[in-house]
Structures are given as C-alpha cells and as structure tokens.
Please model this.
Amino acid sequence: MAKKVTIYDIADRLNLSPSTVSRALAGNSLISIDTRERIRKTAEEMGYRSGGQAPRAEADTIAVVVPEINNIFYSNIIRSIQDKVQSRYLLSIMCSDNSARKERDIVSRLNPSHIKCLIISQSMDVEDNSHLKEAEKKGIIVILFNRIYYSNRNPKFLVDNYMDSYLLTRHLASTGCRRIAFAAKHYNCPIYKDRIRAYEDVLKENGLKFEKELLIYSELTMEDTTEVISRFLKTSPRPDALIMPNFVSALQAISAAKLLNLAVPQDIAIVSFDENPECKFSAPSITGISRPHEEMGEEIAAAALALCEGETLESGTIKVFSSRLVIRGSSFSC
Model:
C-alpha cells in the first residue's frame, strides 16, 4: 500500500512549515493567495487527501523548556511570557535539569495536536539539535532563547553575554584588581565561550596576564562551587577578584573568604553574572549584571504569538538584549 501523503511531506517539498501548509489547505486568510494556491497545487500533484493528518487548529498550548527552574533569569522571563500569552494560549513549563538526554526526551514527547509552539533554552551539554528539527517536522514552531546554537534557523533571543562579561571584568580591572579569577560552567556552552572571550580581551587590554589556574571549568553545583572557590583561595599568589556565575555562588565565595579572615572587597572582590533582588541585602551587597528580563520575555512572547497566528519572521532572526552593570559593595569600597 502506498504511503499516505501528509502535510509534512508537502512542507518538505516546498520548504515551508507544516503549520503554514495546514492553514493554507484550510483556506486561512492569513496565508497569501499565491502561497495557498502553490500549496494546493502541490498537494494535488502529490496525491494529498484531507484527513491524512490530525488538524493543528486545536493546539492551544505553548511549551517552555528551561535548563534550570530555580534560576531567577528563567523564572522572570517565564512570568513575562505568561503575562503576554495567557489570554490566548496555555503555558506549559518543563525543566531539562541541564541534561541533553532529558531535553531530547521532553521535546520528542511534545504532541503537535496540543503544543503549538516550543520556546526553549537548551542545556549546556547539547551538541545535536536533531530533536528540535524533528519537532518542527511535526509542525511545532520552535523559538530559541538564551542558550542557543547558531546553526539552527529558528528565531533567537539572547542577552549580550560577551558584553556582560566585558563589563564585569573591566570594572574589576578599573578598581585595581590584577589577578582576576573566573569560575566557568561547561566549556562547550556558547554563553561561556562568549564570556571567556570577553574576559581574556579585557585582561589583554589592561596588560594583565592570562593565567590558566585562574580559569576553572566546573558543573558548578553547590558542591562543585565550594571546591572551585577553595582552589582559587588556595592559589599562590591568591586572586584579588572572583567572577562567579550567579548570586548563590557569589554568596558562597563571600562566606569562604570570611572564614579565612579575608575582607571583601579590600582583600578580594567578588562579582556575579546575576543581579538577584537578594544581591542588595547580602553583607557586603553583591555587584552583578541586571538583565532586561521583562523586555526579553515580552519580545519572545510577541514572536510566538505572531508565528502561531501564521505570520512569518525572517529566517535566522536574532534579537540581542543589552544588560546593565550594578556596582555594589562586594567590588567597590567607598
């Protein structure tokens, strides 16, 4: 028996999304007359019969997959997305726990009869994006944010990680720090590639030597972070500044320094890539990067709504958001 022709087959033939094909065959006025006619003719030529594929019109949910559910960056963006889409779509939130295996499993189980769009920030160890391509073949719209891999043509929304790191490192160098240590996560993660490139650039611009022992890669779990901080503080000569990935790790570093009777920032400055609300209440308050969570979430949601309603975005669309350095007591002594 000959294989039934589906909307996915037609989409592959015309290099269109399955959702566009589905809408065109349903006569949706959001699809141009020319495109509808081209799709109709191709469907006839390929022997397509309606009913060969479940309709997509009933899908009423946008899925959001993040690598860390307790990270304020993701929780704020999710809140902003929900505020924008909740009147029209349900929001389903899932966490990959920074595991490429879990991420692939989650994405592979998304049902296109329920899920209209997937908004995803990928886990640090992802090396193969075939699972996202499979989701698209099913007719699920895919939008990438924060942790992205540029080989995909999907719309992308990200902060300027290079500039975030540049601002932090330049600030430390401007206060007189000369041995600046950097705690980094997975070496393959695009975010950390950008951050470390900026770190090295600032060192070079300020005539500071790059020292391998002052850059440590780690998964940076709570236990890992304790070990990384201990290694930094035991280095001789000791670093005079630490760049940590988030508020909690910066707080750990401050506690470890105090146990060694080191004054922050007089003996060692400590900064964070996160600017949590709690940063202002620690002792000392913590210097960090304030990101435009609300603006970023709103623009991601606007793109998702537009695509769900049949509009198109230019292939490879990338939106980069700028952050702000917030200087506090952990790196600056009045």
Observations:
- Confidence is low (pLDDT under 50) at residues 52-57.
